[in-house]
Amino acid sequence: MSRNEIREAQPVLREQLRGGQMWSRVLRRGQRLRLIDVEGGASVAGLFYNADDPTERYNMPDTLKAQQIARLTEGFVLYSDMGRVLCSVVSDSVGWHDTITGHGTRAHGEQRYGAGSYQKLRNDFFRNSRDNFLTELGKYDLGKRDLVANLNFFVKVAADEDGKLSWVEGHSRAGAHVELRAELNTLVILSNTPHPLDPSSQYAPKPVAIEIRAGEPAAADDACRRSRPENERGYLLTEAYFA
Amino acid sequence: MTLTDSRLDPKRASHDVTLESGLGWTHVLSPGQIFRIVDLEGNQAVDTLFYNAEDETERYSAVDTVREQGNLYLSVGTRLLSSEGRALCTIVADTCGRHDTLGGACAAESNQVRYAIEKKYMHSCRDTFLLTIAHQTRHLSKRDLAANVNFFMNVPVTPEGKLTFEDGLSAPGRYVEMRAEMSVRVLISNCPQLNNPCNGYDPTPIRLLIWDRE
Question: What is the pLDDT, as a whole number, of residue B169?
């Protein structure tokens, strides 16, 4: 192992998110973020912004149509509304991360699980991704206008030929991971709460481990870059931004 | 796919305008008004956003709409839900049968990614949205341009999660009609895209009609 490889192999940061917890951090260009489903059945909602100008953000439709896909997995990238790559999915053992079904609100939670107040449950109170996102976005002076269609890591909701959606139970297993590499300096906002289509009547969000490693942006022979000409152009536009 | 006609008479409409491709339009509907978009020449894509006119931070949410109705495609009965989970409009008539809400709006920047770096000069829906809100609204800006509806556009998703752009199901004279469920700002870009089949490579005018509540 070269010194660089050793540096890239060791996490610079390890954290564990409890069920219900929110999280945010700016990943510097080249840094990698790995999410690990510790027990299986995790569901982590994510939002992504250019940390240098948060009006530039993850754009669900541009991500889907550039890559002609409605899910994310290894080899695909997250596009911003400015034609640039925010993050690349460099490793994934799950195969399908949801892009199209949004996140839950307090109303969803109350209907499914009951009230779950802080007064009664203290820090095990029932959280929801809308309120988590608004809280965490607020720390960067962002808010409702910035809350766009999110990603749902470890979640699969498939459509049949008529467009009917169904939740896929048992999709993510214990130890499953997904790893992103930042191509812009990226503000990542995460919320670890149950997905609104999860049919369970128990509020039981799962722990998720987070690891951040140093690294370099996509090289010329990078798999995400070479996967299709659209992505080659996306990386060219991203490099031009830093030129 | 079910097609549902409307019995409303265009002669009794309180608004009746034609919008060329490449142009934008915005208007506030009162609760109960009926709004119709007519695909005059067929295979046009009509990029449309909706806002609560009294609090424009509440806006159309594609992901809430598809999740809550359990289906990706919009047609009669679809409640166009807001980011607060409330119905902005309900689709009440539709002679096309399927409308998209995953494909979003074209933009100069995404055209560069999708087609070629040199395509940046081409006109796009996002440019139309930005210019229309700059001239005709007080508070809206880029941050308010979330994922939109594409009326008359056909973007099927396969069970394997592939997204495809298919020829439109629409034809000359097909229309979609919706009832405003609150005071709703409608923002339209009549799509100028020349690089894919969403407009049959030939962007064409649409007709917009509004009827007052009966």
Answer: 83
Domain boundaries, chain A: 3-242
Residue A224: Cβ-neighbour burial (10 angstroms; 0-12, 13-18, 19+): buried
Residues 6 or more apart whose CB falls under 8 angstroms from that of B175 comprise: B6, B36, B37, B38, B39, B93, B94, B95, B96
Q: How far is B212 from chain A, CA to nearest CA, in Å?
A: 31
Give the closest of B67, B105, B159 to A101, CB-based: B67
| pLDDT tens-digit map of A88-136 | 999 999 999 999 999 999 999 999 999 999 999 999 999 999 999 999 9
Strand order across the A44-50 sheet: A22-27, A186-191, A44-50, A151-153, A97-98, A71-72
Secondary structure (3-state) at B51: strand
Cα Rg of chain A, angstroms: 18
B110/A149 Cβ within 8 A: no
- Taking CA–CA distances from A144, the nearest residue in chain B reads B57
Sign of CA dihedral B89, B95, B98, B100: negative
Counting Cα atoms < 13 Å in the Cβ hemisphere of B49 gives 31
Contact of A27 with A182, CB cutoff 8 Å = yes
In whole angstroms, what separates CA B52 from the centre of its chain? 16
Q: How far is B183 from chain A (nearest CA, A)?
A: 19
CB A182 within 8 A of CB A33: yes
From the list A91, A89, A79, A99, the residue with the least C-alpha distance to A233 is A79
Q: What are phi and psi of B68, to 5 degrees?
A: -70, -30
Interchain CB distance below 8 Å, A82 and B109: yes
Using alpha carbons, list the distances in angstroms from residue A128 to A131, A167, A203, B158, B182: 6, 18, 10, 30, 26
Q: Where are the domains of chain B?
A: 13-176+184-211
Distances B53 to B29, B87, B184 between C-alpha atoms, Å: 8, 13, 5
Among partner residues B113, B142, B146, which is closest to A237 by beta-carbon distance? B113
Distance (Å) of CA B157 to CA A37, A161, A231, B97: 27, 8, 20, 16
Closest-approach residue (CA) in chain B for A58: B146
Contacts of B164 in chain A (CB under 8 A): 68
List pLDDT tens digits, range A196-208. Answer: 999 999 999 999 9
The maximal CA–CA distance of chain A, rounded, in angstroms, is: 55
